[in-house]
Amino acid sequence: MATTVIVSYDGTDNDRDALALARVFARAGAALELAYVRHSADDRTEAPVLTNGENGLPMHVVLSGSTPEGLRELAAERDSPLVVFGSEYRTAKGHVDPQRSARRLIEGGPIAVALAPAGLASNGGFDVRTIGAIGEDGDPCVLETAEVLAAQLGGEVAPRATKDVDLLVVGSKPGAVTGRVTISAAAEYLIELARCPVVVLPRGVALEF
Question: Which pTM value belongs to this model?
Answer without folding.
Answer: 0.93
